[in-house]
Every structure is written in structure tokens, then in C-alpha cells.
Amino acid sequence: MKEVNPEETTRAYAFEMWMNAPMPMVTLFKTLDVTNLARTSKRKGMKFNMLMCWCIGKAASGIKEFYMLPVGDKLIRYDSIAVNTIVLNREGEVSSCDIPFSNDLGQFNEDYLRLTKQVAECCRNHDLTDSMVIGTSALVQYEIDGAVGMYSGIFNNPFMIWGRYRRHLWKRTLTVSFQFNHTQMDGAHAAEFLDRLQKEIEGLSLIKI
């Protein structure tokens, strides 16, 4: 990770326009077809949430805007990305766990299981400060139509929220919200990411592990 001059990036105009905005966050909603994800989870014995996080990382890894993030008053470029998940720890509270993204689904699955277990047992967050982290929150016990994340003024990271998927005969759908800082990306980049996420979900069954 390193600081970059915004004027030397494609985010120069956005940095000037949105960096000091009192509310620079934008939220998009999309309903995804997660039928293949649910089937793959059952067939391969892998956690639904892990597969969802991997698809998020995979979709984001091909979009260059995800590797830059406004931090404080600076624009930082990262060499890697990670996906965060919220873990219920042994004290009945929640802890935060950053999973380094890997194109290798098997490796990501191993890291996900190891790190979430570690966080659940020690009740301490696992933070990766040298990666651009995509936050997630899965409210799988509840059906929700959407959620807008809180903007703290400290964290500018992109963030996704979803609830329990809905059943429609043989089809499964999941509504997600995606919040991002306008300095980091434009609406078109965010919409492209969500389209790529759908394609990654559809291609899961073709991946050999």
C-alpha cells in the first residue's frame, strides 16, 4: 500500500468533489439470483457465506477502483484486497474478521474457516491493515429488503449487507446493498461490480476444488 497523488489517477475529479463532502457514501441495491450458490454450497459442503464472500472478492479483484481508498485526507493504493465477515464469538458477541482474498477458492475456504474459528475462540478482531477491505454483514436469520450502512466519517471502505435468501420454487434470490465512497468509485463502477458478482455466482459450479 502507498499514498498516491490523486491528480495522477483517474479519481482526480472525484477526489476534489467528494473528499470533503459531509456524506460521500452512495448505496446501490440489487437482487441476485443465488440459486447456483446455494446448490454449490450444499453439493460441495461449503458455507454459503464463505462462497458469497469469495464471489465478492473475485468480482472486485477485476476492477481497479477497488484497489484505491480514501484514508484520512489521502488517497491510498493497495496491492491486495480482503473481504471482512462478522463472527459470533464464544462470548455471544460479534467480532470482525478480515479474510485475504485468493483466486484459489480452496485456499480462500481454508483461510476463512481457520480465521473465523480463531476469531470466534479468542474474541479479538482480525484486521488486515495492508489490504483494501470490503466489509460485509450477513443477517441470515431475517428476510430484509435492504439496508443502508452507517457512515462514521472514519471508515471509507465499501460495505455489503444482506439477509436470508428467498425461495421461489426452485429459484433462490438474495437482495444485497452495496455502499461505497464516491471518491473511490462512481456508480458505474459499483454497478459493474454487482453485475460481475452475479456472473461469479453463476460460474461457481464450474470451479474445480
End-to-end Cα distance, whole Å, is 31 Å
The count of strands amounts to: 10
Helix content: 25-40%
Proportion of residues in extended strands: 25-35%
Poorly predicted residue ranges:
none
- The number of helical runs is 5
* SSE order, one letter for each helix or strand: EHEHHEEEEHEEEEH
The main sheet comes to:
7 strands, mixed
Q: Compute the average pLDDT.
A: 95
Q: What Rg do the Cα atoms give? A: 17 Å
Structural class: alpha+beta
Overall 3D shape:
globular
Notes on the protein architecture:
This protein has 209 residues and is α+β, with helices and mostly antiparallel strands. The chain is built from 5 helices and 10 strands, in the order βαβααββββαββββα. The chain has helices at 12-18, 35-44, 48-61, 105-122, 187-202; strands spanning 2-4, 25-33, 68-71, 74-77, 81-88, 94-100, 132-138, 159-162, 166-168, 171-181. The strands form 2 sheets. Strands 2, 5, 6, 7, 8, 9 and 10 form a 7-stranded mixed beta sheet that branches. Pfam families: CAT. GO terms for molecular function: chloramphenicol O-acetyltransferase activity.
